[in-house]
Automatic annotation (TrEMBL):
<protein>
    <submittedName>
        <fullName>LysR family transcriptional regulator</fullName>
    </submittedName>
</protein>
<dbReference type="Pfam" id="PF00126">
    <property type="entry name" value="HTH_1"/>
</dbReference>
<dbReference type="GO" id="GO:0003700">
    <property type="term" value="F:DNA-binding transcription factor activity"/>
</dbReference>
<dbReference type="InterPro" id="IPR005119">
    <property type="entry name" value="LysR_subst-bd"/>
</dbReference>
<dbReference type="GO" id="GO:0009089">
    <property type="term" value="P:lysine biosynthetic process via diaminopimelate"/>
</dbReference>
<comment type="similarity">
    <text>Belongs to the LysR transcriptional regulatory family.</text>
</comment>
<feature type="domain" description="HTH lysR-type">
    <location>
        <begin position="1"/>
        <end position="58"/>
    </location>
</feature>
<dbReference type="InterPro" id="IPR036390">
    <property type="entry name" value="WH_DNA-bd_sf"/>
</dbReference>
<keyword id="KW-0238">DNA-binding</keyword>
<keyword id="KW-0804">Transcription</keyword>
<keyword id="KW-0805">Transcription regulation</keyword>
<dbReference type="GO" id="GO:0010628">
    <property type="term" value="P:positive regulation of gene expression"/>
</dbReference>
<dbReference type="InterPro" id="IPR036388">
    <property type="entry name" value="WH-like_DNA-bd_sf"/>
</dbReference>
<dbReference type="Pfam" id="PF03466">
    <property type="entry name" value="LysR_substrate"/>
</dbReference>
<dbReference type="GO" id="GO:0043565">
    <property type="term" value="F:sequence-specific DNA binding"/>
</dbReference>
<dbReference type="InterPro" id="IPR000847">
    <property type="entry name" value="LysR_HTH_N"/>
</dbReference>
Length: 304
């Protein structure tokens, strides 16, 4: 098995016909068929079902294709790195973030960074912390923002933000007159909550138990942005990550401090043994200053 076999397999998985795969590779249909057959023979795997004259990928083919795509992503990163060495002004910096920081916050980061480096392209991936962590470990991402609830031992990790959850209320809610919303204030109110695993990790499960609020939960979601949207539609009251609250400053959502405090701790992670990168260092500085600006805007809103 060599790269020719993998290239033929990948092209066939992407195009699903030997004709199109041959066009992608600049070779003949018979060459594609022979390379794929050689791959099956060398791996002793049946990758395609050839019934009725069609090539239908098997479950093993899909599993192998996922691994191949991961490897190709690494090759693409190496290619980008080489191009960046030749022309650093045309660099691509790939970063990842949990959803709470991946919307308005990172849009503002990108605007600030482009003002300093208009020729550098930022490529943003948003998703769950473990997904971001895995892509940082494999050098697919140069930097990631993740929660502190996952194992980051295989990365270089530093604290980026430790921020208390805030309470979001629908416009005109009776509790809006209060400057601080306490646990007892939520009694009898429709509550929006997070998925059970997230509540346990963030300590919310115990908080809700202390206030006997579980029976008042009317809807759940995984991300703060979903909770905020439901509050906006007057479904109930929710606790938001404060950076997610920034995404709702142009709405009529009422934001208030919440007690007792419930901190969201976010880590900034980079690959181990990463080469020095002045452009990435500058991005970190923009992220830190943007966080200060975002929190200043959110805190100003909570005083209204």
């Amino acid at each position: 098995m060599d790269f020719r076999h993998i290239d033929a397999f990948r092209a066939l998985m992407l195009t699903r016909t030997t004709t199109k795969a041959a066009q992608v590779l600049g070779t003949s249909q018979s060459a594609v068929s022979r390379l794929v057959a050689d791959l099956e023979r060398s791996t002793r795997l049946t990758l395609f079902d050839r019934a009725r004259g069609r090539l239908e990928p098997t479950a093993k083919a899909f599993a192998l294709f996922e691994e191949v795509e991961r490897r190709y992503a690494g090759l693409d990163n190496i290619r980008e790195f080489a191009l960046n060495l030749r022309n650093p002004d045309k660099a691509v910096i790939r970063v990842g973030s949990v959803v709470s920081f991946g919307l308005g916050f990172f849009a503002r980061v990108m605007a600030g960074y482009r003002a300093r480096h208009p020729s550098v392209q930022l490529a943003l991936t948003t998703g769950a912390s473990d997904l971001i962590r895995d892509q940082v470990v494999t050098h697919q991402l140069a930097l990631g923002l993740v929660t502190n609830t996952i194992d980051v031992a295989a990365t270089d990790a530093v604290s980026f933000a430790k921020l208390d959850a805030i309470c979001a209320l629908p416009s005109g809610h009776a509790l809006a007159r209060k400057k601080v919303i306490r646990l007892a204030d939520l009694k009898g109110q429709p509550i929006l909550s997070y998925e059970p695993t997230d509540m346990v990790r963030w300590g919310m499960d115990q908080l809700f138990a202390d206030g006997n609020l579980h029976q008042q939960v009317v809807a759940t979601a995984r991300y703060s942005v979903n909770i905020g949207t439901m509050v906006k539609e007057n479904v109930g009251i929710g606790l938001l990550h404060p950076v997610s609250a920034y995404d709702f400053l142009d709405s009529n959502l009422v934001l208030r401090r919440f007690e007792p405090s419930m901190p969201f701790h976010t880590l900034r992670i980079t690959p181990r043994t990463a080469a020095p990168n002045t452009q990435l260092d500058d991005l970190v500085r923009v992220m830190e200053s943007t966080l200060e600006d975002v929190m200043r805007a959110v805190e100003a809103r909570m005083k209204r």
